[in-house]
Give the backbone structure.
Amino acid sequence: MAALAQSQFVPGFLKELPYNSKVMALSNEMWNSMVDSQQKELFQTAQMKVEFYKSLYDNADVWMNLDEHAAEDEKVVPVPLNMLP
């Protein structure tokens, strides 16, 4: 079976992300071949990243405009590469 990224369950904008994601590359066969500890580690990493993104979303102080004339909804926040989903 194909990786998650090739499935119908993933929105197009996620398929077009400019980096490779461990989760998006995962297929059913790969998941099933993992031992419990590997599955648990993958799940815990995903949970940690969700919490990280929640903390960014909830902290207005870390968001900034890249252009002084940008609209309020165009603010961005830097994300470390190792925290990309």
